[in-house]
Structure formats: structure tokens, C-alpha cells
Amino acid sequence: MSSREPDPRDVLILPAPPPNAVVRYGPHEDNVADVRLPSAPGPLVVVIHGGFWRSEYDRAHTGHLAAALVAAGYAVAQLEYRRTGPGAPGGWPTTFDDVLAGVGALPALVASAARSLGRPAPLAGPPLLVGHSAGGHLALWYAAHAPASAAPAGVLALAPVADLVEAHRLDLDDGAVSALLGGGPDERPAAYAAADPLPSTPLRLPTVILHGTKDVQVPIELSRRFVAAAGAVDNEIALWELPEVGHFELIDPRSAAWGKVTEALRSLRR
């Protein structure tokens, strides 16, 4: 029987181990996060899932990534947020309000959940952010816009949609950026400016972007453009280009690229 590499897209549908708890950070049904706890105190990682901000994708597909991070000693919270789609309440500014509220509230909520379960609480301090695709955009945006009192310890953005104007021009996922912001950049310039993940002042925040050169869902050129522009403001932002890697390998612990994900995450703590 011949062996083959696992299909990275399988990670979107393969059931993951259940979380230890689900916590709520707001009144809407999507204002929740799955919590997964290691056996010893570890740093808290907040995972922001992708899916082009659309309601058809939720946090479930990052369950394997989260479980692998727990096995590596991290406490993990998978943030859910309101998304776009027919009848869905997400978009500008709702989606962004949820990310601000959720990331800010999760350290205390995860610590409380750990106490209730008799498990070790995460190590004290701000969380690390890990975001994939649209979630990578939201993680970078949060770092650039959160109040100083709620700043993360670092950001790992996996194949982020880091340039919304270019993503709109490329019509990624059939109008995903227009659905998020209510139109194109000429129609909604204020929304595009407010949703831009570029920092306007130095964040002095360790940030790594991982992007595969074979990514067809989110071309690597978006990350290159972001880092070129961000480098003029903040020299702590680094781009790690992964040859022959696509979009979904970065959230698949079975993939050869997974070692780079954990290496990048470790680098944020030094």
C-alpha cells in the first residue's frame, strides 16, 4: 500500500478533541472561545481562526492546531467572533469589536475556567496571538489598535490577509473584503483605513508572519507588501517565507511546515 502526504485541507473537516471548557466574553452567541489547558502552567495563546471572515467557517477547524499547542505546553483559547454572510451580523465594525473585546477578556476568563476545573492557570502576563488567514489579519489589526493596557505579548500571523486594498483588487474569495467592509476602497475609504492592520506608531512588539510561497488562497505578495510598509514604522516585524508551502499546511500539525510554526511561536517569547 503506497503512502501519501496528508491533504492539508483535511484539517478543515477532521474532528478535533473537545475543549476543556467554553467561555463567554459577550452577549451574542458567537461571543465565545474554546479553552484547552495543559497539565502544567503555560503561556496563554489566543487563536483567531480564518475563513475570509465568513460565517460558513468557525473556530472548529483550528482545533487540531490548538490541541497540538496544548501538547507543546501552551494554554489555548480559540476565539469566535461575528462573521459575514446572509443574515450574519459580522463585518465592520462588529467583527472588530468582538476581537477587541474577546482578546482583552480572555486572560481572566481562561484563568477562571482553569480554577473551576481544578487545572493550572496560565502563566501571568498578556497572551500571544496566533491568527490564520483572515484571522491573521485580525491578529495584526488587534496588535496595531488595542489599548496599551491590553497589548499582546507577541503576534504570529499565518498567511494573513495583510493588505485589504490589494486583497479587494485580487477579489480574494469572491468579494470577501467587500463583504467585510461594505464595499470597495473607493466606496468605503474610512472603513478600509480603520481596518488596516498596519501600525501607525512603533509597537515594539515581536511579530512573525509565516507565509508559504505556494499559497493560492492568500498570495504571499500580500505579506511582502505589509512587511515592506510596516518596516518603515516597526522593525520588530519579520516575514518567514516557506518554500513549497501552501495555505492550510500552516494550521495542520501533520505537515512538514508545522515545525516552523512552533519555532516562530517560541521566538516570540525570547
UniProtKB/TrEMBL annotation:
PANTHER family: AB HYDROLASE SUPERFAMILY PROTEIN C4A8.06C (PTHR48081). The keyword Hydrolase applies. Keywords: Hydrolase. Residues 40-227 form the BD-FAE-like domain. The keyword Hydrolase applies. It comes from the Bacteria. Pfam families: BD-FAE. SUPFAM superfamilies: alpha/beta-Hydrolases. InterPro entries: AB_hydrolase_fold, BD-FAE-like_dom, GDXG_lipolytic_enzyme. This is Lipase. Signal peptide: none annotated. It comes from Asanoa iriomotensis.
